[in-house]
Structures are given as structure tokens and as C-alpha cells.
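pipeline: protein-struct stage 2 | run 1193 | ctsl
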Amino acid sequence: MDMRDLRDKNEAGATSPYTLIYLQELHGKNYQGLEDQARKAIFEENLKKIVQHNLEYELGMHSYHLGINKYSDWSSQEFTKRMNGLIVSEDRTMDLYEPSGDMELPSSLDWRSKGYVTGVKDQGQCGSCWAFSTTGGLEGQHYRKTGKLVSLSEKNLVDCSTSNNGCDGGDMVEAYKYIIKNGGIDTEESYPYMDEKDQCTYNKSNIGATCKGYKRINQDEESLKQALAAEGPISIGIDASGDNFQQYKGGVYNNPYCKNGENDLDHGVLLVGYGQENGIDYWLVKNSWSEWWGEKGYIKMSRNKNNQCGIATDASYPIV
């Protein structure tokens, strides 16, 4: 069976040996001894939660469903520690985006269809989400200006942005500052990603894009919607600490327990659109956990629900 076919089949209810094949063969999960036993126990517990949630989903109790993915043998605590690396910058001195009062907003929007968004990437076991959010925003703005979609180097940021902490977290604003001071950022091709911090090897001859400034967006969803429609993809921080976020598979993610304060945000992502599904408003968000997670790397998050998960709390975009 093709590996992508297995990915598309990772619905709850899958049982051994499929689950073992999925985790061990598809993602090179080879545990030994006590760790093997512990991983199996974590996986079985996560599977129970997935099955229970999806039974409730079928009864109309939830607007989203869950599925097995390559993180299903991790506890929620270690998942959050390894994957959610946003450390919100204290810098609030940047310019604010000023929405146009007479702009007519489309009922739905997807910047992928307009050529602004590169393919889904994978941050690996490194808290570098902030770097992927940064490159996503700059890739979109570079395309807007030049008509060329260039994949930019997250590794350049992880290794060289010293005001951030590499795989131990960082923030998009601090990354913008580095790119401005540095005179640009290398291409993905010239400085490919690895999920670890190394010595900085930036090469100015390999610049893929430059940045001359950045703007923050007011902390409300209407301002965010206007900025997204007018400017392109937006870098945002969210609260992604909920158990079900780890196992999200599809639908509109609605978590009333999500927090939205600046200190509650723990994951940097890229906002690329909005719309409605089954009458429910959503934001379309690009993640950096590979196509094996969510809707082939994307998640639809609740929109117009009091800034749920802090979707509008820390939104910004670069200026090229």
C-alpha cells in the first residue's frame, strides 16, 4: 500500500497491525525495552481518546474529528514541549496596520489558490515553529511584490537569529529584525532545514528575499480579516496546548477551553485564509508539522468566537 494512502486512512478505529505499521514503518519508530512498552501505552491511551471523540463527532457533538498521526505515541506534555516553541516578543513598538474602511471583503479567501503559499514543511523535533511562521509570511509578501514564490530558509533563522533561541523557541518579530539587519534571508535550497541548531552559515549570495519592516495587527478578528484580505498571509501565534490539537484530523477546531492572552500563546503558524464549513466560520491555518498532520498540514480554526485560541492576539506581517 502506498504511504500516502496510509496517511489518508489514518482515521480513528484503526487497529493493530495497521497502527503498528503506521507508527513504526511510516515514521521509523523503533523503540526497545521499557520505552517500547511506555510508547505503546501512550499510543493506546491516545487511541481511546480519538475513538471516543469521533463517536461524539458522529453524533454531532463536535465540529472536528481526530485521527492517528506520527505524534500519537507522544504524551501531550512532551508534544507541547517539543513542538510548541513560540516565545512572544515584548516589543510592541512596531507600526500598526490601519484597515481601509471602504474595502469590500470576500466571503471566503484562500491565498494558496493565488500562488502566495509554499508547500507544507516539517519542523521535526525542534521548537522552531516561529521560524516557519516567519518564512511563510515573507514568502507571501515576496511573491506579492515580485510574482515569484521562493521557499525561504528556516534553518538560516534557527542558526543565525541570536535574539531567538533556535530549537528552544523564538518569535516572528525578532526574526523580522534579524532579516532586516542581515540584509536578507537565504533560500531553502541553499540553506536546507535540519531540526537542530548549528553554526550560522548564512551566505549573502544566496538571498531569496529581503525585509524592510513589519506591522502588527490590532488584537481583534475583524482587523485580522481585513489585513489578511488586503495584504496576504499573516504570521500569528496561537494556544495549541490542548490535547485534541495534537491529534486533529479535520473539520473546524473548536476548543472553548483555549486561552487567548499573550502569555498563553505557544505556537507560531501562518494564517492563509478564511471561510465557512457546515455553517461554521473558520480561519485557515498552515502548520509546520508535515502533511501527515491535520488536513494535509492545515487546520481550520474557529472564527468569530471571541478570539478563540488567541488567533488575533499576536498577528503581524513583514514589509518588503
